Amino acid sequence: MKKLILLSLVTALAFSSSQSFALGKGKNFNVNQSRTTANGTFNRNVQRQTTENGFTKSRSATLPNGQSKSRVKEVSVDQDTQTATKTVNGTRLNGESYSRTSQATRTDDGYTTSSSRTGIQGNTVSKNTNASYDKDSGTVTKNKEFIDAQGQSHTSTTTRTVTTNQSE
Length: 168
Hints:
By secondary structure, the chain is mostly beta strands.
């Protein structure tokens, strides 16, 4: 169960783009695309570069009117600490910047995740999850905390028990 949880986290963090799957896991690539319409030419570039412990993926696009946007995602996995980290920085068409960071760490009985996001007005929100798995009872417990842009904390606890029918 622990391996499945960690694999799910790493997969979600590292390969959130369907294009990564389509072009092959772990492959470096560069895609340049231009599309010309009656409104002008649209340009798009996507690059993926494998790093020592993960990858970096950059995307940019330019509209016919000259507006552009960009995004850089960096994903790394530290095998020693069983931690996967994803950082995304970008600029929207209107020139405003954004960023977010996510981290997932395997623990002895489950995992922890944390993420923070800074929006276009500089407001930051964060989310933390501690999940544990009790093998004897088949129970997964998740404690979540969300801190909104005003600094208010919102918490929840979810408990799920999975049992299997051993008679089949």
